[in-house]
UniProtKB/TrEMBL annotation:
<keyword id="KW-0540">Nuclease</keyword>
<feature type="domain" description="Metallo-beta-lactamase">
    <location>
        <begin position="12"/>
        <end position="179"/>
    </location>
</feature>
<dbReference type="InterPro" id="IPR036866">
    <property type="entry name" value="RibonucZ/Hydroxyglut_hydro"/>
</dbReference>
<dbReference type="Pfam" id="PF12706">
    <property type="entry name" value="Lactamase_B_2"/>
</dbReference>
<keyword id="KW-0378">Hydrolase</keyword>
<keyword id="KW-0269">Exonuclease</keyword>
<dbReference type="GO" id="GO:0016874">
    <property type="term" value="F:ligase activity"/>
</dbReference>
<dbReference type="GO" id="GO:0004527">
    <property type="term" value="F:exonuclease activity"/>
</dbReference>
<dbReference type="GO" id="GO:0004521">
    <property type="term" value="F:RNA endonuclease activity"/>
</dbReference>
<dbReference type="InterPro" id="IPR001279">
    <property type="entry name" value="Metallo-B-lactamas"/>
</dbReference>
<keyword id="KW-0436">Ligase</keyword>
<dbReference type="InterPro" id="IPR026360">
    <property type="entry name" value="Xnuc_lig_assoc"/>
</dbReference>
<dbReference type="InterPro" id="IPR050698">
    <property type="entry name" value="MBL"/>
</dbReference>
<protein>
    <submittedName>
        <fullName>Ligase-associated DNA damage response exonuclease</fullName>
        <ecNumber>3.1.-.-</ecNumber>
    </submittedName>
</protein>
Length: 338
């Protein structure tokens, strides 16, 4: 039997923290928004006040024009810091391991504890702090890859496939489609960890976010813009672009590119074929099936609420394990090219 936590209310456009009249990752402008991270399906401009980590506020300022320096409109909350909201609600931001600045939000009210994970993963990522499990009564988890078929391979093997393709094709470049916030920077950092120290070339849409990561202490090595580089100079090089640029006019300036894409969805062969991807790299910033189920078991909440993805299979897993659970119907949340 799932209890009714009346003070935390899932509504179509977000999770409403009723006593504080605040919202978690609302899909439309509200007076007070608590934002888990900077991806567009969770973060939006137009709120009266935005509460998030300093890194997420910086990302939102860059992407959506949020006034991160305006103390009236933005409230930075560091990891581990607790903010008292109206109505006697305490909010604490805890690392989620998804992208730079990403956070779970622990809400405490009237002796009850609710954790909203936002998006998260459990694997190490050199660009952001790791996920920290938090004890709670209600655990509201994403389920982007909430099907047993989604079991992400070790990232080292995927990076090796990328660099091996370079060595095997010296007259071509490897063009990697990667989401501009988080995936691109993690990919670059992991390539560096693999021992690749040559310049990595960027589509113009990637440059500002990579600089923001560097400004926050993430070492990405030497990065260069593709613009103005002779075609021949890109032979044998890695080029990173948004997924939307993989097959457009821009990519035609490159020397016979090996089209790659870094995404958890590359586990599905049909998705790779639809995008004409020659080198699918199964690299995700979301928890896979094993991580989702292991996290629920580790946190061991009284109730699990499931959202943002394939709720039904994870709901069934909870039920088979005698775990109280429910699926939430929220709108405005799409899987990005992860």
């Amino acid at each position: 039997m799932v209890a009714d936590f009346a003070w935390i209310r899932p509504e179509p456009y977000g999770i409403h923290v009723v006593p504080a009249d605040a919202w978690i990752d609302p899909a439309r402008p509200v007076d007070t928004a608590l934002v888990t991270h900077g991806h567009a399906d969770h973060a939006r401009g137009g709120h009266g006040r935005t509460i998030a980590t300093p890194e997420t506020l910086a990302i939102m300022q860059l992407r959506y024009g949020v006034e991160a320096e305006n103390e009236v409109r933005a409230a930075p909350v560091a990891y581990g810091e607790t903010l008292r909201l109206p109505g006697g609600v305490d909010a604490t931001f805890v690392p989620a391991g998804h992208v730079l600045g990403s956070a779970q939000i622990l809400l405490e009210h009237a002796g009850e504890r609710v954790v909203i994970t936002g998006d998260y993963k459990r694997r190490p990522d050199p660009t952001c702090p790791p996920f920290q499990p938090v004890a709670c009564d209600v655990f509201i988890t994403e389920a982007t890859f909430g099907l047993p078929v989604f079991r992400h391979p070790p990232i080292a093997g995927e990076i090796a496939r990328l660099t091996d393709a370079l060595v095997a094709n010296p007259g071509r470049c490897v063009l990697v489609g990667a989401y501009a916030l988080g995936k691109a920077q993690r990919l670059i950092a992991e390539v560096r960890a693999h021992g690749y120290d040559a310049p990595i070339y960027l589509h113009g849409a990637m440059e500002r976010m990579c600089r923001l990561y560097e400004d926050h202490g993430v070492d990405l090595g030497e990065l260069r813009a593709v613009a103005g580089v002779p075609k021949g100079a890109l032979e044998g090089q890695i080029v990173v672009c948004p997924p939307s640029a993989l097959n457009d006019r821009w990519s035609r300036r490159l020397p016979d590119p090996i089209t790659a894409m870094a995404s958890g969805w590359m586990r599905v062969r049909q998705r790779a074929r639809q995008r004409n991807v020659e080198l699918p790299l199964v690299i995700s910033d979301h928890a896979d099936w094993d991580e989702l189920t292991a996290t629920i078991a580790e946190v061991n909440p009284a109730e699990t609420w499931i959202t943002h993805g394939r709720e039904e299979a994870l709901l069934r897993w909870c039920q088979l394990g005698q775990r109280a659970a429910r699926a939430l119907a929220l709108v405005g949340y799409e899987d990005e090219d992860d």
